[in-house]
Amino acid sequence: MSALYDVDNVSLDLAGPASGLQRLLPGTAPRLTILSNLSLSIAPGEMLGLVGESGSGKSTLARAMMGLVGITGGRLSFEGRPVKSRPDFVKVRQGTALMFQDAVASLSPRRKVSAQIVEPFEINGVSLPEGAKTAVTMLERVGLAPALAQRFPHELSGGQARRVSVARALALNPRLVIADEPTAGLDVSVQAEILNLMSGLRRDLGLSFLIITHNLAVVRHVTDRVAVLYLGRMAEWGPTRQVFARPLHPYTRSLIAAEPQADPRKRRADLALKGEIPSVLARPSGCEFHTRCPLARPRCAAEEPQPLMITPDRMVRCHFAEDTRTETQGGNHGTDLEH
Amino acid sequence: MSAPLIKVDDLSITYASEEGPLQALRHATLEARAGEAIGIVGESGCGKSTLASAMINLLARNARVTSGGVVFGGRDILSASDEEKRRLRGRHIAMIFQDPMTSFNPVLTIGEQLVDFQDQREGLSKSEKRQQAAAMLKRVGISDPVRCLDRFVHELSGGMRQRAAIAAALLMTPDVLVADEPTTALDVTMEAQIIHLLRELRRDYNGAIIIVTHHLGVVGELCDRVYVMYAGEVVEEGSTDDVYHSPRHPYTQALIACDPANLHDQTPVLPTIPGRLPDLVKPPAGCSFAARCARATEHCRSVAPAHVMVGPRHFARCHEALS
User: Fold this and answer.
1) Beta pairing class for B176-180 and B93-96
2) Considering only alpha carbons, which residue of chain A is nearest residue B268?
3) Nearest residue on chain A to B189, judged by CA atoms?
4) What is the pLDDT of residues A27-68, one digit of tens each?
5) Which of A9, A43, A151, A163 could bridge across to A142 with cysteines, CB 3.0–4.6 Å?
6) What single-letter DSSP state applies at residue A56?
């Protein structure tokens, strides 16, 4: 299966804070690694989840895929064609839509919904497919009443604003929608409505979705595959079901264990993950997770783990992934592994 | 059983709006005892924030109390004078807000603010108050409290900010601590740490903790009792275990069913609650959930249900609760 969007070994680093002497001698200033050797591909019609804490580089990767920040290493390709120059990214943006995290803030407060959802056509010089009726048709596609076209963003509820941003993302019939925290701040029932809407669009239109979130419950239910990012590096990826049934990276395990349980009989007795994600200014040596890892041994601080392909569709970067794998295999998890 | 520390009694609050008074809270009753953690859950517009603001006496200007009151220390605090209200806030009833970034003043250091918050503490010098502040920061898990005192709020990470906000609220050892969505702005790992901290603080804190949230998981992890709100009313109350394991109000049942955290198998279509909240300017004559309830009868649409006792200290506002 050829990928719709392929991210191959992508890195992004920025100039770090330099001392006086370093500023005078070009090339000696420190570089800060933001993203490091990330690879991931999205198949047509696939829903891929990208998870990790704030500061793990999820949104930066999405922005790099849209050409909003430049990469410093690796290759991007969209529909089989390499994406390097500005004109390439213009093409990517016509076939891809980004839904921003704050749906209300991503709408202009001074323009009506009708004017804003047809903007993608105007920007790309495409005539409105249904003329004056276009806005209403677009709203109907995401389950909103035509009357909403005449509203201003402040007159919308959180769920409605989210639907408007879905409508706008769909304007140019994209092949890929990148949704940054599509359900953050929504009530549970509205969250389910938005996710169902996205799943329905994927089924009916064959759209691919990249869903960026720290809400694991969302990822568990709607995505086919999940990638876990930590401090700009891929910790683990694989089919969602397998990753949740048997996480192989201690970070993935901690994230799953940190989710609050809506059941007083299953209260967490202990903390899964202590401390905070380190700053990119002080990236830990070796495996960057060793400072918080419950399994860390001296080797982890000294040596960087290499990506390990457990199966052709499952990757983990941990020195002890094989141990974890054999340990958990003895249990009753075998049935969870069916595709 | 000890007497309640704080009691909300038949409280109704309306907000002035262009279309007429909006009935944001209708006949809400709630109580919290010393050492108890209670949760108030519900979706946007259910009145949970209005209820929280009433408990700390920070109601908006266009709010009007149309029935009932909030009883603390044997008297109604909503009718207290401004001076008395000021004395209660912080000292006896404190609040942790959703966004810790905006709950601190951006141009004063954390230390200056934590000293100011002890204004009502007499007989302590400024340096002693500063020591108190540092001790409280240490208590909430800030590893370098003295350095934190000299920081501005923007210099702290999200998790640190919320810890500092909790320290600020606990500084005067209030009797009642109200936390409005204390973990909504945080990552899942920070959320777990804040929940852990609040649970730990509960052990050596003898006040009442009231958690207001739309997140069932937070209440599940922290609270002894829970109040479920819908369209301005408390529709179900009981122990967290009873309400989560045998919910009796159809709204509670629907809310629990559509939380993806409760679904163990992958489902292509997630359950939702069809329909919309009723217009609270003209609330329905019958049960406010009837329009969205699969079990609603003609009786439900015309007659408002009373609180029905469905078990020990477990109530539901539903005609069908016992059937």
Assistant:
1) parallel
2) A222
3) A258
4) 777 788 899 999 999 999 999 999 998 888 998 999 999 999
5) A163
6) S
